[in-house]
Amino acid sequence: MDQYAGTSNRSVLKVLVGNKCDKEREIPVHIADQFAHNNNFNIFMETSALQAENVEKLFYEIADVLVAKSQSLAVNGPIQSSTNVDISSENSSRGCMSCLYN
């Protein structure tokens, strides 16, 4: 988490998903919830792809947050990022995430 902290701004949506909630729990919900809160995640949800539990709900939750962020940007203007990325460097051909690995 720390290595990406300076590469984004507040407009980035951070989602923590605990998958396989149909299986025996390895991490208590309150620990995962606290982790999400401490690391400024916008959404924390547990899902089960096998049983399709909360999968659709997660997508709707993401859509709701994105719409709210979009409306906020329309009213308040874009959030200024303090991070500059040089897209003209040689490494830019490796893909959109290559700037994170330089």
UniProtKB/TrEMBL annotation:
Name the record gives this protein: Ras-related protein Rab-30-like protein
Highest classification ranks of the organism: Eukaryota, Metazoa, Ecdysozoa, Arthropoda, Chelicerata
PANTHER family from the UniProt entry: DRAB11-RELATED (PTHR47979)
Domain of life: Eukaryota
Pfam family, any one: Ras
Gene Ontology MF annotations: GTP binding; GTPase activity
Xref: InterPro entries: P-loop_NTPase (IPR027417), Rab_GTPases_membrane_traffic (IPR050209), Small_GTPase (IPR001806)
Native organism: Leptotrombidium deliense
